[in-house]
Amino acid sequence: MHDLTPITALGGSAARSDTIAGLTLTERPDVALASVAARLGQETATRAAVGTLIGTEAPGPGHLAGGEVRAFWIGPDQWMIEAPFATHENIATILRAVTGPAASVTEQTDAWTRFDLSGEDLVPVLELLSNLDHRRMASGHATRTTIHHLGCYLVRSAANTASIYGPRASAGSLHHAILGAMGAGL
Amino acid sequence: MIIDHPLFGPRDASEFVYLGDASLMDRPDWKSETAAQDFHAYAYLRDNPAGPHRELWFHEGGDRSWLVITRDTVTHEITRVELARDVARKQRAPQ
Predict the structure, then answer these.
(1) Fold (CATH) for A31-109
(2) Which of A25, A38, B30, B89 could link A46 by a cystine bridge, Cβ 3.0 to 4.6 Å?
(3) Is the ipTM of this complex over 0.85?
């Protein structure tokens, strides 16, 4: 029998959290991810399946929708679905049961690491990290961008929270970049 | 330079990568009698216009969509931006 201890993307046994100048950066290992891509000619069926999964209409380009199970748009007829890890450890199987053969479902949980940046004044920090027009991005916007040469998804989860999904293998570099930007205004 | 993405609106050109002439989408039929000549032309022969040019761009720093961009090679003015998949589907649709 193996006796393995799970660790987070940053290598700790618990999620790391740092607070600098009123902003908090928290590691979020508690979510499961899978992407859903419509097969040719199955776009409408896939859109409907994504709607069923998140309990509301599938989000359009540049947006996020849903509640505990949520989806953000990652390309034409493609979405990333996120759900709590505790209930959706086998997220791809759960999604495939709903999409059927209309879509390709790909497990993504361990491909990404999520960091939540929260605080009143987070826009200046985001502006240091990526070239998007962050002042025009409101809660519910989600898009892919480049942060320190890493392709990341930036999701404005709530008014004062941005979720940043970066490549898990570069979790340390991304964490360092965000912490640096948070401290830059000190 | 700013590229007006059909789905996201204006995005900085640094997010995009140039991938070549838009004619690369029109791959010749390998079963054709003239396939050898067709593929030679497809791989090696390009027009080099001083003026409007249709070209493929890849939104590498964004949603990774392929775009067909009409750009004037003299002024760099971009007059049209389309999703490459829309262009391809339109070409393939029965007339």
Answers:
(1) Alpha-Beta Plaits (3.30.70)
(2) A38
(3) no
